[in-house]
Design a protein that fits this description.
Blueprint: H1 2-21, H2 28-44, H3 46-49, H4 52-71, H5 75-99
Helix pairs in contact: 2-4, 2-5, 4-5
């Protein structure tokens, strides 16, 4: 009887650990890193691409990074995505303010 309850507890624990590993929160870090890098590259080429693309990619990177910092396991990726996303947001705004 005791072995059956420990086996069911072990299977429940393993199910819970795989559920957290498969949750969407594990993707917040890598997605913010990719979006932040793409936003920073788009900000560098804002003269060719326009100002809207870096602003969109940077704001999405910041959003996913903040969500990932709160509940995701990839906090380093979230930190880098937050940094590059902020740079992707600020660079076009500062360039537009400097030329205005």
């Amino acid at each position: 009887m005791a072995t059956a309850s420990t086996a069911s507890t072990a299977s429940t624990a393993s199910t819970a650990s795989t559920a957290s590993a498969d949750s969407p929160a594990t993707l917040y870090g890598p997605v913010s890193l990719v979006l932040g890098t793409a936003g920073l590259l788009a900000a560098v080429f804002a003269g060719l691409l326009g100002i809207g693309i870096p602003l969109l990619l940077g704001s999405l990177a910041v959003t996913f990074a903040l969500l990932g910092l709160g509940r995701g396991p990839h906090r380093v990726c979230c930190g880098v995505g937050l940094t590059t996303g902020c740079l992707g947001l600020l660079l076009p705004i500062l360039l537009a303010a400097a030329w205005a």
